[in-house]
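Q: I'm a student working through a structural biology exercise. My instructor gave each of us a protein and asked us to get a predicted structure, then write a short paragraph describing it. Mine is Palmitoyltransferase. I'm not confident about reading structure output yet, so if you can add a plain explanation after the tokens, that would really help. Here is the sequence I was given:
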Amino acid sequence: MGGRSDALDGAFVIVFDMCVFGGIVLLLTEISSLVYLLNHPLFIVLFICYLSSSFLTAALHYRVVHSNPGILAPLQSLQGTPCPHCAAPTLVRSHHCKSCGCVARFDHHCFWVNNCIGEGNHARFLLFLWAGSAFIILQVLVDNVILASKPAQESNFIEIHIILLAQMLCTVVVGFFLLGLTAFHTYLAATGLTTYEVLKADTIPYMTLGMPFFEGPGPTLVRFFTMDRSWPSTWTPRRYEGAVSDVMRVVMKVVDNEYYSCC
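A: Happy to help. First, here is the predicted structure for Palmitoyltransferase. I'll explain a few features afterward.
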């Protein structure tokens, strides 16, 4: 990795962590309300869940940032045609990223974590999204409880609580994006697809099968959450194998396999 793009991605990583812990810091502007509300057991539970979700989100973010997405080494002894960009042996679902290199079961390059999402860390990335979504929801709940504890008839209500109101507005906007992204990647996990395959379906031959790696919700999710323990993976499900004719099997032994692409 290197260059301007990586520096920009690194800045996004710092900005994300500042947003997570910045929400806690901004709540200190309502310290009097917090002290009052912490006398209520239900709010104590809510606030503990909120703090826990923030630290869990930050911890998972760190893990994804420093994880290996499944980068294929140039000298790795695997079957497949070599990548024209880095000479790494390619797999059925590998793709070459200009920042990270060839990544097994490539999903996308995420600037928020300055890393690719692939076979080695996609499950961890989804856990990070789930934790982040929980944090966003709890942030809005805490903000609303604090605002609800204030007399709304105050003539200068907005001026007094402008910081909290601005924070809640930003949280809601980010929340719509994050919850949508979380739902999308949950769908990908349950169907055995990747972002790259969904976006490039028209150019990937095996995607004419619809969902070639779907083996039922249960087995597909199990494989999704355990695949990073054994990457790079060379498995191909029966549905995918069954769609390849005997003639194509012979041809693929002679010429470059069109299903192995890193471009």
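A: Here are two points you could use in your paragraph. Residues 4-254 form one domain. Strands lie at 95-97, 101-103, 108-110, 115-117. It's a good idea to check both against the output above yourself.
Q: Great, thank you!
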